[in-house]
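Hey, can you fold this one?
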Amino acid sequence: MEEYLSTSPATIYRSLARLNKKGYLSARKVKRGRYPLSTEYAITEKGRAYYRKLIEEAAVFRRTAYALSPVLGLGSRVPAPERIKLARAWMEESIKMTKRLDARLKDHSPGGTYGKPYAEWLMLSHEHAMLKAESAWIRRYIKLLETGGA
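Sure. Predicted structure:
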C-alpha cells in the first residue's frame, strides 16, 4: 500500500473511526492478555458496496501516469466478473482515445499535426504507442480473467 499512499498511523485511525461512524466498518473492543484494550474493525456489507463504488469510480479511463493502477491493483479486490466489466470499460475508452490520436497523427493539414513542433508530434506518437501497448496488455488480462487464470 505504501506504493500508492504514504500516511501516518494517526490518519489511519481517524479514517477508521470515520468509516465506522458512517457504517462502512463495525468495531469491537478486544482485550488480549496484558495488552491494553484495542479496537478491532471489520468491513460491513455497506462498506463492501462503498468500496466497490470507489473502485468503479477510480477505474474509469483517465490518461495518467498510472492509468491502469485502479483496474489492476485496487480492482483485484473485487470479484472477477466486476473486474472484467471494469477492464472492458477501460478498454472501450482506450480504443476511443487511440482513434482520436490516430486521426491527429494522420492529419497533415495546416493547423493539424503538420507544421506543429516536433515535440508535440512526439508526445502524440508516444501517447499513441503507450495506449496501444496498454490495450494489448489489458486484452490479455481480460482473457486471463475470463479463463480463471487471474
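Strands lie at 25-30, 38-43. Let me know if you want another pass with a different chain boundary.
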